[in-house]
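tool=predict chain=A
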Amino acid sequence: MPRDIEIQVRGVCKAFQMPGQKPLPVLGALDFEVERGAFATLLGPSGCGKTTLLRIIAGLEKQDAGEVCLSNRCLLKPPIIWQEHRLFPWRTVTGNIAFPLEIARVGKVAAKEKTDALMRLVGLEGFGNYYPDQISGGMAQRVAIARALATESLCLLMDEPFASVDYQTKQALFRELQHLLQEHGLTILYVTHDLRDAIQFSDVIFVLSARPARVLETIHPPAGDLNSSPLEERLWALLRQGKQDRQ
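tool=predict ok
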């Protein structure tokens, strides 16, 4: 039975050219696929090009070679949820979530219904008139998730969005993401440096080398395995290997 592929990265290469310097290779012929409805994680050393790859998939950056293919379900390039929530400080919670709907010229009644539904989905009822500086970091990231969902994209890109929130909030947000995966058929490509998060929440982990990044190994963490130590040690070994290969 054929697999449903949501994101396909084929031979993607990227180098940055600095004035008066040689090109700096960042991505080196990356190849991987993310199945529909999966929580996929990119794990690799700092500076290996994970964020650059997300920007390429989102259409914010142009690769030098290779291609990114999205499924026919993705009518628009997928949005990125960043480590900083990047909300508009002059807009309320409701105003931030409604922004993509305004851009799409959705009618006021339909936009309000959609915004209210998204606020309920991420647990923000009663906070619609608050501004970003009046809510917690975890709540701000909930707003960012709701705003991304307002685009009606069926694929989300996430660049360490919970790095600055406390452990309990992060666990709650991950549970909400898993609910969205199951109930709405979303696909998530998630960047992190946290090995335990990758093991606990991922359906698949793509371990990247140091730049120019390539996929060292594709790992499918066993579901429900509470003893993550052996896999964590294996991931550490792969990351060390990736650094040594580039030295």
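The chain has a mean pLDDT of 86. The helical segments are 50-57, 93-103, 108-121, 137-150, 167-184, 195-201, 229-245.
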